Fold this sequence. Notes:
By secondary structure, this protein is of the alpha/beta class.
Amino acid sequence: MAQVTILGAGSWGSALSHVLTENGHKVRIWSFSQKEIDSIMASGRKIEKLPGFFYDDSIEFYNDMGEAVSGSDLVVFAVPSVATRSTAGKYAHFYTKDTGIVSVSKGIEEDTLFTQTQIIEDEVPGAVTAVLSGPSHAEEVIKDLPTVLVAGSADEKLARTVQDTFMNENFRVYTSNDIIGIEVGASLKNVIALAAGMSDGVGNGDNARAALITRGIREITAIAVAMGGKKETLNGLAGIGDLIVTCSSVHSRNHQAGLLIGQGATYQEAMDKVHMVVEGVYSAKAALALGRKYKVSMPIITEVNKVLFDGKDVKEGIHDLMCRDRKAEG
């Protein structure tokens, strides 16, 4: 039995708290907001972002980070990607070398082009990090529906610890040492999912969505390999697996936001209607910058950026993707 602290009380961190308590671990959840904790307790431990579900009675809630992480075997970063650096900066004061750090957030930092674990390592000197990722929606995990992910770390022992801590009959976890490939796949798939949603929003069908998924994984793989990741990682759960579910599931906030944009909403209006953080919006500029840095052609990601931030008409953006110059597939 392990002591695990989850930083962040969003839908994904909350669903993972369910997995961990089912596995018999002691779980604490830290929130930056005492008001959020008070609301949870006043509601009878309802999970606000997963209606109909409740936190296990054994879970402890903290607003004081030092108390939350004290004595923990694993600390799970489950905050929105835009909050990872500030959260890691707070955590640095309490980190001990005996604690494993697991990131379950997805995103590339716009200013530095760092992945989530790179941000944590930048803020927490000497930290040993892992990532847990793959095709997984909190709405299904909380129901104990079969889910398969991959735990990645340069430290094989930590990857296996994450595997052993989270894995059960409904939640299968593989291990990998390709943390770059996993994190790039996890981040950039959200941008492709926005494009798939936009395509659906303007009235295109399954054929167009399948094309965007297929060409999208090519863009993601190209940039991941250029950064030192492995092609086979992107052919697996953290790449094509995560991309498929994010581009097609009714639970996908990125696809839903893209759909609204395709129907005429601005990205801010779309995010307001989704009522949750849309990571693809925050990763889009960073994804484009990565493509330029590594000299990788990224036509889908380029058009998404033009629609989001340059005022380009969404129908024109989708049209321009279809009317690119003739070329061989590759």
